[in-house]
Design goal:
- With 241 residues, the chain is of the alpha+beta class.
- The protein has 2 domains: 90 residues; 136 residues, Alpha-D-Glucose-1,6-Bisphosphate, Chain A, domain 4.
- The chain is 48% helix and 17% strand.
- The chain has 6 helices and 6 strands.
- Strands 1, 2, 3, 4, 5 and 6 form a 6-stranded antiparallel β-sheet that branches.
- The longest helix is centred in the N-terminal third of the chain and has 32 residues.
- The protein is elongated.
Length: 241
């Protein structure tokens, strides 16, 4: 047991590697995003508990032997294990609000922007790009009443170019651009798990400026935990800066 501290550090390092793979394995091309999410959901808490227990046992051993270096190594293991448990503890202390069980958010729910270049054959997609109709619109209105079209005093051409600039700033991958119709489609990924979402932007000329509509759709999952609505809010906030 004289190497208990080293064993705790090794367990901590393996734990860190495991967490990184869970969160970013899809971005590294190892698997689909849903696989990493499933690993995280099923194994993050057990992993944190195991690393913490190993660290605590090593700490007890080295403190009993008055081995400061070994005790310090054990503390590192405990800290890494506890860090893995932070999401669990935070969720218990401050349960997150449940987002609406929808994954397709549009600023225009009557005539939502339609996808033309992107289709249901896009990689890893389980959700359709067909709009859900009045039921979806009603659910969105209850959950996100602030999601509305963006009215601007810019002319339509200038607003379209501004929208393209914001898309580049937000690291969207432009899939198709139709300048003569003032529309484009794009794909982006969530920073964690690398889930793909698809976006369409349309600009319409108005009497005193233009109107910018946006629709953001997740490729997988019944709900999106509010990600698409948050993306629309961020786009509109950047546009108006």
């Amino acid at each position: 047991m004289k190497h208990a501290g080293k064993f705790a550090v090794l367990a901590a390092l393996l734990g860190i590697v495991a967490v990184v793979l869970m969160l970013f394995g899809a971005k590294l091309g190892l698997w689909q995003p849903i696989v990493g999410f499933g690993l995280y959901r099923n194994y993050m808490n057990p992993l944190g508990a195991v690393v913490t227990v190993i660290g605590l046992l090593a700490l007890v051993v080295h403190l009993a032997r008055d081995e400061k270096r070994g005790a310090f190594a054990a503390v590192i293991g405990v800290m890494v294990g506890l860090a893995c448990l932070i999401p669990l503890v935070a969720g218990k202390l401050n349960p997150p609000q449940r987002a609406a069980p929808i994954h397709d958010i549009s600023t225009d729910t009557v005539n939502p922007p339609m996808f033309e270049a992107l289709d249901d054959a896009r990689e890893g997609a389980a959700n359709t790009l067909e709009y859900g109709g009045p039921e979806l619109a009603a659910t969105q209105m209850r959950a996100y009443p602030d999601i509305q079209p963006l009215d601007t005093d810019m002319n339509s051409d200038k607003a379209f170019q501004r929208a393209l600039t914001i898309a580049a700033d937000m690291d969207w991958e432009i899939v198709a651009t139709v300048p003569e119709r003032l529309r484009f489609e794009a794909t982006t990924h969530t920073p964690v798990f690398h889930f793909a979402d698809d976006i369409v932007i349309e600009v319409t000329q108005q009497d005193n400026g233009s109107r910018v509509d946006m629709r953001s759709v997740s490729r997988i999952g019944r709900g999106d935990k509010g990600v698409n609505a948050a993306r629309i809010r961020e786009f509109q906030a950047r546009f108006m800066e």
